[in-house]
């Protein structure tokens, strides 16, 4: 669980570095996901979901961003991205 929370924090920072605003809100049964509000790219995560699910939803929202490869990431986060289908060089 500690790894998941750490990866979620790192992924939130990575998304912010890429220009996304990440919001965690109670959404009931809604899953959340990426959206654009007033020209600002956002990822809304359901605070009621487990951390692992929020991490996966956040990574799925930013994985196609072409700038992702140029951003520094921990080896754990890079490995998680690879398992989600994103290639890229490991540290």
Q: What key phrases describe this protein's structure?
A:
91 residues; alpha+beta; 3-stranded mixed beta sheet; 3 helices; 3 strands; disordered C terminus
Written description of the protein model:
With 91 residues, this protein is of the alpha+beta class. The protein has one domain. Helices cover 41% and strands 20% of the residues. The protein contains three helices and three strands. Strands 1-3-2 form a three-stranded mixed β-sheet. A hairpin with a 2-residue loop joins strand 2 and strand 3. The longest helix has 16 residues. The chain is globular and about 35 Å long. The two termini are 23 Å apart.
**Low-confidence runs:** 87-91
- How do the strands line up in the largest sheet? 1-3-2
Strand and helix order: HEEEHH
Structural class: alpha+beta
Give a quick rundown of the structure.
With 91 residues, this protein is α+β, with helices and mostly antiparallel strands.
């Amino acid at each position: 669980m500690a790894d998941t929370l750490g990866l979620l924090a790192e992924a939130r920072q990575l998304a912010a570095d890429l220009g996304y605003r990440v919001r965690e809100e109670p959404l009931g049964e809604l899953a959340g996901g990426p959206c654009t509000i007033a020209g600002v790219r956002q990822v809304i995560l359901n605070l009621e979901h487990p951390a692992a699910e929020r991490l996966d939803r956040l990574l799925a929202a930013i994985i196609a961003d072409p700038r992702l490869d140029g951003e520094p990431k921990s080896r754990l986060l890079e490995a998680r991205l690879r398992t989600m289908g994103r290639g890229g060089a490991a540290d």
